[in-house]
Design a protein that fits this description.
Length: 321
């Protein structure tokens, strides 16, 4: 297949692009490098620097058999401070990208959605029938795109799949997380272990969880990438399907930090602060539908393995260069 990967210079997108190439597909990456890195784009992919808003011009004349759309603004706190950025980049940007894809007859799109569409869940594990009540503009923007894709698929012109990620960790093929600023727990803890950051802060120890810290469901970036491949192969014009992607196991912030200490052998400098705005207490996925309908079988479910893979890349400084 000839596949367009938007956001293919980012953490998850570069792994998706790498796996597509490994399987013999032809890949074009569209990324504006606002948060991604040109050196993360795998060799063998065609790299087009540009925004999804300008896809019609940037990709003029190119034909694709499918698209994986990951380019987005994805910081919850920033979305609260600047909701219009999220509407412009995530909703308007996707609308314009979709118009470009439809005009050139692309039959399938896989979209990077999020657990944030569910907001504060009533029950866990969360399946795809749970109510969607995002509690921040980031989640709202992703839900708006899920709805946009459902409407477009209903016209029969395209097949769409929304993949709702829970917490992604790990590294693959030398590609790890490199966000600036970094907000995610695992890379922050690893930076503290490496000494490139002075300790870290636990946001809240008064949640209704066994140790008082938030519980999350961590999924390896390589397992996540496999789900994209399965979703792309299964997308059929006229259908929009939604899949939650996680391992169905919850780890508290304290448990993650203990795992980081075991993997790195470093005792972390940890201080406790108040809750971070917009953090639900517990987010754990039911990915039963993805297992059933996509035949998705995550192979790297160990939290320690995810942390060890991320640690290996961070420590070697071996982000692909
Ligand atoms: N945390 C800390 N200290 C830190 C960083 C994080 O205690 O320095 C805590 C957070 O408060 C949270 C947990 O670690 O309880 C996980 O936080 P992350 O920022 O790593 O991940 P989130 O669960 O906030 O974010 C993920 C995705 C987002 C998505 C969100 C939905 O990365 O894209 O889930 O809630 F929007």
């Amino acid at each position: 297949m000839r596949v367009l990967v938007t956001g293919g210079a980012g953490y998850i997108g570069s792994v998706v692009a790498t796996r597509l190439l490994e399987l013999g597909h032809t890949v074009t990456v569209l990324d504006d490098l606002s948060t991604g890195h040109a050196d993360a784009v795998p060799p063998g992919a065609t790299f087009v620097e540009g925004r999804v808003h300008d896809a019609a011009v940037a990709l003029a004349g190119e034909r694709f058999d499918g698209a994986v759309h990951l380019a987005a603004s994805s910081l919850v706190a920033e979305s609260i401070a600047n909701p219009e950025k999220y509407r412009l980049n995530n909703v308007v940007g996707t609308r314009l990208l979709l118009d470009t894809l439809l005009a050139s007859g692309v039959p399938a799109i896989v979209f990077s959605s999020t657990a944030a569409v569910y907001g504060e869940p009533e029950t866990v594990p969360i399946d795809e029938d749970a109510p969607t009540r995002p509690v921040n503009p980031y989640g709202e923007s992703k839900l708006a795109v899920d709805e946009m894709l459902a409407a477009e698929a209903a016209t029969g012109r395209i097949g769409a799949v929304s993949l709702r990620y829970f917490n992604v960790a790990g590294a693959y093929a030398g590609r790890g997380e490199r966000h600036d600023p970094e907000t995610h727990l695992v890379p922050i803890a690893l930076q503290a272990a490496l000494g490139t950051r002075a300790g870290l802060v636990v946001y809240g120890e008064d949640y209704p969880t066994p140790d008082g810290t938030c519980v999350r469901d961590y999924i390896h970036v390589a397992d996540l990438a496999e789900a994209h491949l399965g979703a792309l192969a299964s997308a059929r014009p006229g259908t929009h399907r939604v899949f939650n992607l996680g391992n169905g196991a919850g780890f508290s912030v304290r448990e993650v930090l203990a795992a980081v200490e075991r993997v790195t052998g470093v005792t972390l400098e940890v201080t406790v602060a108040g809750r971070r705005a917009g953090d639900p207490a517990v987010l754990v996925a039911s990915a039963a539908r993805a297992r059933r309908e996509l035949g998705w079988t995550p192979a790297r479910t160990s939290l320690e393995q995810m942390i060890a893979d991320a640690w290996g890349v961070l420590r070697s400084g071996s982000d692909p260069r």
